[in-house]
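Async update (no meeting this week)

Hi team, since we skipped the sync, here's where things stand on the single-chain job. The sequence we agreed to prioritize is pasted below, unchanged from the tracker. I ran it this morning and attached the output directly underneath so nobody has to dig for it. Comments welcome in thread, and please keep replies under the output.
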Amino acid sequence: MFSPAHLRAPGRDRAILTGSLVAIAGLAWLALWLWEGSPYGHYLHHEGAGGVSTSVAVGAAAFTAGWTLMIVAMMLPSSVPLVVTFAALVGRRARPGQLVMLLLLGYLLVWGGFGLAAWAADRGVHAAVDALPWLSAHPQLILGATLLGAGLWQFSPLRDRCLDECRSPLGFVLNRWRGVSERREALAMGLAHGAFCVGCCWSLMLVMFGVGISSLTAMLVLGALTAIEKNLPQGRRLTRPLGVVLVLAAVYVIAA
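Output:
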């Protein structure tokens, strides 16, 4: 049976891991910034990654790479408490670093799958716009619907459940770790964490997707809001006001 006492890693180890995760996120931000300013920056936009001059495979691969960098830059910092908690739990195992990497791999696999699905759905939306002149003449309806869906999702009980899981790293780790098949459990925990994180933030990521993943300012704002909501004691107070702001933004976009 595990208790919080088992998760008290030495302060130096916690600082090194936290610093490493923050450095990885910082490198992801730098890579996105350099990519945006390069001749290949158009691949960071879903339109550019799926254009007619680009094969489906190349477009999907390019966008997935950019999307994964975005997730590392935006979402990894908000997961630092859970990763550090898990690392403390497995610190005396034979290969603790491998287990932490499997946890992160599972997390990124879920988010990568979501990004690829969003890219594929976006191709369908563009096909619908091309086929329907009325929709092509009113593109604001698509952005408005995205903002409205994101705003309403902020009031969903299911989202509250996902947010509770993300805000309780200690309980999340203790409830899912048995230590019997450690590599499988580490990967499964990463997949579960990714699933709850997607459940909490998928609507905001769709807003990010609509803006374009090369919009670093929007990424910074959404990343900061996500980290605050998940990790600070008063973070839950952001949920409903953010939903109201998104709904009002949808009304403005459609009306304007």
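Quick observations from my side:
The chain has a mean pLDDT of 84.
Residues 96-131 form the longest helix (36 residues).
Reply here if anything looks off.
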